[in-house]
Design a protein that fits this description.
alpha/beta; about 500 residues; 17 helices; Aspartate Aminotransferase, domain 2; 7-stranded mixed beta sheet; Aspartate Aminotransferase, domain 1
Length: about 500
């Protein structure tokens, strides 16, 4: 079995195996005609369940042949221009090269003695991102697995900072156990679900999150936020954090960051900006101003694997004041004893809520060193411009209703029959659900869905610069056809 270990004696086998795998994927990419095959759960489940994992195939070529049948053939390919579903981007080649290198070397980014150069590359990229945000020299952060973990990490820091301040300023300090139920988090009603999930995991409960109404553009209503913050103080509660969103998942809306920062400062409240989606604007040559005010935040989430065209996973949580990272610091004698900090040995685990971490920063490093920040930003600009064109298509198409003009690259809309009076609201909802499912089952395209004011809507998430308005038009025609067929059959059954 030692022949399967990657080392100096198996370098030739490594080269051959990886080359064979790359050839399979390259051939699949070159021949992909649809985002996926449309295979169903019921069709694929018995195929995979029937594989005896205790009886290896031994031959790597046979394993790759099998992989064709259980994965490569039916995978959903995000590079296809008619994948318009979730926040999944096509990836750039320099990042894929970085992924191959980091997997083979397998550095662990928790301590210096496991990563060395990797530690310094990650720190350099954190400094670079902090600079793009507008944080000063005290800015810092760490790479994470994704936006949900970044948001959780930021709210952990906000919780402990709020407890520190409350106990420091109180004449009769409350025990932490009594203070936690009094903490409140404020975020827009269309923000990411990870805010509520984080509150629950932090021992605050879902009810600790106060949803703030949004305006017609799906941006946080700051007048409503001001009122909620005042009510919080009046009721003897503690405003722990305000979470602003720079790119909501459903609408791509960007909250009014400068005004939110002003209100957070007035109430001595931590401001976190979830820019997991909108972080692409940090490198935009033309739209960086849409993030004005982000530099006033206490912490920021960025997802490079959404808007920087990086493979999953690649995210980071950044703070304006590096001292606040100490709330998540723990020293273990076997790993990062306190003396290492005193000796200024850079252990990233001192900042992270993870211990073992992949060297995901390498992918971004390879990308920037090959393409440059402007190159990445130009790609993101292209999808934002495409969304504007897609909005005009939807706004002038009588078959569809579009919710809001996009700030980023998301479009939320629904099919409406020409004679709306002939169908109930429930039937129209079902028609939109059916259209999405039927489209997915065909494999011709992938779109997402959501609810707006209780009604069922469809969603384009445009993150592929190869997608064109012709692709959007074709997908709209397919959706309308499926919806019309469903409603037509409904009329027949009703009669």
């Amino acid at each position: 079995m030692r022949q399967h270990l990657l080392n100096e004696t198996t370098a030739a086998d490594y080269r051959r195996s990886v080359t064979e795998g790359v050839e399979r994927v390259a051939a699949k990419l070159a021949s992909t005609e649809k985002p996926h095959t449309g295979i169903s759960v019921d069709e694929l489940t018995p195929v995979i369940a029937g594989i005896d994992l205790d009886r290896p195939l031994a031959d790597p070529a046979a394993v790759l042949d099998e992989l064709e049948d259980v994965y490569l053939r039916d995978a959903v390919y995000f590079h296809h221009p008619r994948y318009l579903g979730h926040l999944n981007c096509p990836v750039v080649i320099p990042a894929v090269l970085g992924e191959a290198i980091l997997s083979a070397v397998n550095s662990s980014l928790d301590t210096w003695d496991q990563s060395i150069g990797g530690t310094l590359i990650e720190r350099r990229l954190i400094d670079w991102t902090a600079g793009r945000i507008g944080f000063g020299p005290s800015g810092d952060g760490v790479f994470t697995s994704g936006g949900s973990q970044s948001n959780f990490h930021a709210l952990l820091l906000a919780r402990d900072e709020a407890c520190r301040i409350a106990m420091q300023n109180s004449d009769v300090p409350l025990p932490k156990g009594e203070l936690l139920p009094k903490l409140r988090i404020f975020t827009s009603e269309v923000s990411h679900f990870s805010v509520k999930k984080s509150a629950a995991m932090l021992g605050l409960g879902y009810e600790a999150v106060i949803p703030v109404p949004v305006d017609a553009d799906k941006r946080m209503n700051t007048a409503a936020l001001a009122l909620e913050l005042e009510n919080c103080r009046r009721d003897g509660l503690y405003p722990m954090a305000v979470v602003a969103t720079a790119g909501t998942t459903d609408f791509g809306s960007i909250d009014p960051l400068p005004e939110i920062a002003r209100l957070a400062a007035e109430h001595a409240t931590w401001m976190h900006v979830d820019a997991a989606y909108g972080c692409g604007l940090l490198v935009s040559p033309t739209r960086r101003h849409l993030l004005d005010g982000i530099e006033l935040a206490d912490s920021v989430t960025v997802d490079y694997h959404k808007s920087f065209f990086q493979p999953v996973s690649s995210s980071a949580m950044l703070v304006r004041d590096r001292d606040t990272l100490q709330h998540a610091t723990f020293y273990a004698d076997y790993l990062n004893p306190r003396r290492m900090a005193e000796e200024r040995i850079p252990n990233q685990v001192d900042k992270s809520i993870q211990t073992t971490r992949r060297f995901d920063a390498l992918k971004l490093w390879m990308t920037l060193r090959t393409m440059g920040a402007d190159g990445v930003g130009e790609l993101f600009d292209q999808v934002v411009s495409l969304a504007s064109e897609g909005y005009e298509l939807l706004a002038t198409d009588p078959r569809f209703e579009v919710v809001v003009r996009p700030q980023l690259s998301t479009l939320v809309y629904r099919y409406l029959p020409a004679d709306r009076s002939a169908f109930t609201a429930e039937q129209i909802d079902e028609a939109n659900l059916h259209a999405r499912k039927a489209l997915f089952a065909s494999g011709e395209a992938v779109v997402a869905g959501t609810k707006v004011d209780g009604a069922q809507y469809l969603k384009f998430t445009l993150l592929n610069p190869q997608t064109t308005t012709a692709d959007i038009s074709a997908v709209l025609d397919l959706l309308a056809s499926h919806a019309e067929q469903y409603l037509g059959e409904s009329l027949v059954h009703a009669s």
